[in-house]
Amino acid sequence: MEILPFSIQQIIEQCAKATGNKSFGGDCNKRHFDYFDKYLKELECKTIVVEEDYISKDYLENYKFYFSSCFQDFKRKCIRLHFFKSKESEKSIDKAILADEKEKLNENYLGYMVLRPIPNKEFGFTILKTYNGKRKFFGNRKYEVNFFGVKLEIESLAFQEQDGALSACATTSVWSVLNKTNYLNYTLYKTPISVTQDADFLASNGSRIFPNKGLTVKQIGNAFYKAGLATEVITNKESNIKYLEANKKENVTPEFLIEYQKSQDEKYLELKRIKRLIRAYSPLGIPILATIQPTKNAGLHSIVISGYNITRTKELKTKYHFELIDRLYAHDDQFGPFTKIELSNSKKYGLDTIWTEESKENNGSKLLSFVVVYNKKVRITEQSIFAFFQTLQPLINDILNSVIEDDFLGKSSRNYDYYCIRSNSYKEEVKKLTIPDEEKLKILKSSLPKYIWVLSFYQNHFRLFDIIVDSTDIISNVIVIDTIHYHNAIKEGFVSFDKKESKKLIESTKKDLRSRKFNPLNIDEII
Amino acid sequence: MTDNINNTKSLDDIFVSDKETNINVRLVEFEQQREEIGEEIEKLEEEKFIDNETLSMEITVS
User: Fold this and answer.
1) Hey, where are the domains in chain B?
2) Which of A109, A410, A518, B35 would give a disulfide with A513, using CB separation of 3.0 to 4.6 Å?
3) Residue of A67 and A477 predicted with greater confidence
4) B35 CA to chain A: closest CA distance, Å?
5) What is the DSSP secondary-structure string of A273-287?
6) Is A407 strand, coil or helix?
């Protein structure tokens, strides 16, 4: 064990030590050093505790499969660096270890970083605390850390850099997602090599898969499927493809090529859709994998979104709560964990990643696709539920408006939120709500499917009414299983709703549901 | 999602009893919303497309 004052130079020197080079053989200018320097300074890191001869399961598997058979000698063991925000000495650490001062150590503990003996690809299993504040890190989990016999705990999501042999960015992204699903008991623990092996036998062009240069989205899907999970792949909309279909090969002219390039530029997920998907699926607690094109003409890159930030306002002026998301946080294996993604309509493609934040151009990075991962029992998708929810809104709004003061019924004051969640997590939410006991008990005591969609109606910041939908059924049979009235006055509004007088409203809503392939009988369940 | 924003009013303040609004006024409001939503849902249909070209590209940045 060695105790060092924090500086990025110390980390660079430890990297050199880990790889066995007396003078650092790697690239000191690599992006990670700069990122970790800023990140750990923001966390007010003061001390590094060096744990030598650390055995990392992830690296050991890779070593066994690949590095042990290289002509060059690769070491089998790693170095682990622990970070503390307190100033420590060997004496103070020894004392804390002997006295098992778990609480004191935990208070100052910022996480650890494993340094692999692979030149230029040193950053192995890394878990670091997130910044304080009101950011929501839905993808994080609890990790237990054995610090020289003292059990510490930290909330984070594991990060590692690709090793250039057994994993590229796609593999490390899948690995980070599986780190969370393993914690949720959905999957077994997977090392990077097992992720790549699960993805395919061969690379997409027929070449061998190791050394690994990357995966396709389908191969990413394979890796999740083999782990026992379901995936939903979401890409850009079709406008550009319609254009391409209309043009045959014989029409390839310089003008066509310019138009084609333009259509390629339009291939990205729109900002509204990015926000929708993050809000809808984040309560499931599983990080969301995204494919991006970091800069113009760059190859595709994979990142893992595990958190977001929302704009906080006194007056809610957005129609949907997802519109409040203004920033995402993602693991980017080319920089580090929790890198910032600014969402902004002023950017050409709606966002700015760490790759483009210092660029003077207005392009930003492009988000091309999402791979949303969930338990196989989540079957009704966000797109279906969004259409279903919208179809119900005019009728439900009419009932809610009948009990609300006109002064509170400003045009923009009705707003909505919807998300997918484990029913047990929803019950936990309901327990904390200030709603009539009768309503609370109705939900807590009811038998619900494992996963549900919750569709909420709000007036300004006040939550009024929830519709609970079974997410485990088939799409053509979206079923409302319950409702929550947040106040007795709302319940009375539903009870006194005159179905005879409002027959036209009810019939029109049923007709809309039928035409959009939803079950119209849901209306009878709600009103 | 907006849980930690302080409000000066409580939920009790926003309700009114015996409110009556003419069914014709309600119908106008209802149809207006229905029309707007119909357009939104049409746009959702375009999203069902899957771009195979992007999906088959290797994710390789290093």
Assistant:
1) 20-45
2) A518
3) A67
4) 10
5) HHHHHHHHHGGG---
6) helix
- How far, in Å, CA of A109 to CA of A44, rounded? 11
Q: Which residues of B6-45 are buried (b: 16+ CB within 10 A; e: fewer)?
A: eeeeebeebbeeeeeeebeebeebbeebbeebeeebeebe
Nearest CA to CA, how far is A342 from chain B (Å)? 19
Does A217 sit within 8 Å of B54, measured CB to CB?
yes
Q: Do A214 and B59 touch (CB under 8 A)?
A: yes
pLDDT band at B4 (very low <50, low <70, confident <90, very high): very low
Nearest to A116 by CA among A154, A84, A74, A146: A74
CB contacts, 8 Å: A390 with chain B: 37, 40-41
A279 → chain B, closest CA residue: B1
Nearest CB to A408; choose among B2, B14, B26: B14
pLDDT at A222: 96
Other Cβ atoms closer than 10 A to A211: 14
pLDDT tens per residue across span A18-77: 988 755 555 677 899 999 999 999 999 999 999 999 999 999 999 999 999 999 889 999
At residue A300's C-alpha, the angle toward residues A298 and A303, to 5°, is: 120
Rounded to the nearest angstrom, the gap between the alpha carbon of residue A332 and the centroid of all alpha carbons in its chain is: 12
| A84 DSSP 8-state letter | E
Query: What integer pLDDT is reported at residue A476 of this predicted model?
Result: 72
Of the residues A505, A506, A512, A514, the best mutation for testing chain B's interface (the one with the most B CB atoms within 10 Å of its CB) is A505
Q: Alpha-carbon distance A73 to A76, whole Å?
A: 9
Rg over CA atoms, chain A: 26
- CA–CA distances in Å: residue A428 to residues A326, A350, A431, A452: 27, 35, 5, 14
For A145, the token pair is: 């850390």
Check if B61 contacts A (Cβ < 8 Å). yes
Min Cα distance B28 → chain A (Å) is 10
Query: b vs e for A335-370, b when ≥16 Cβ sit within 10 Å of the residue's Cβ?
Result: bbbbbbbbbeeebebbbbbbbbeeeeeeebbbbbbb
Q: Does B25 touch chain A (CB under 8 A)?
A: no
**Residue B34, phi then psi, degrees to nearest 5:** -60, -40
> Hunting for tokens 């090793």 — which residue is that?
A163
Query: Measured between CB atoms, does B39 come within 8 Å of chain A?
Result: no
Q: How confident is the model at residue A434 (pLDDT cuts 50, 70, 90)?
A: confident
Flag whether residue B22 sits within 8 Å of chain A, measured between CB atoms. no
Q: Enter the tokens of residue A207.
A: 């070449």
- Residue B4: closest CA among chain A residues belongs to which residue? A312
Q: Do A487 and B56 touch (CB under 8 A)?
A: no
Domains and CATH numbers, chain A: 1-136 (no CATH), 233-374 (3.90.70), 382-526 (no CATH)
When mean pLDDT is compared across A12-16, A321-325, A471-475, A482-486, the lowest value belongs to: A471-475
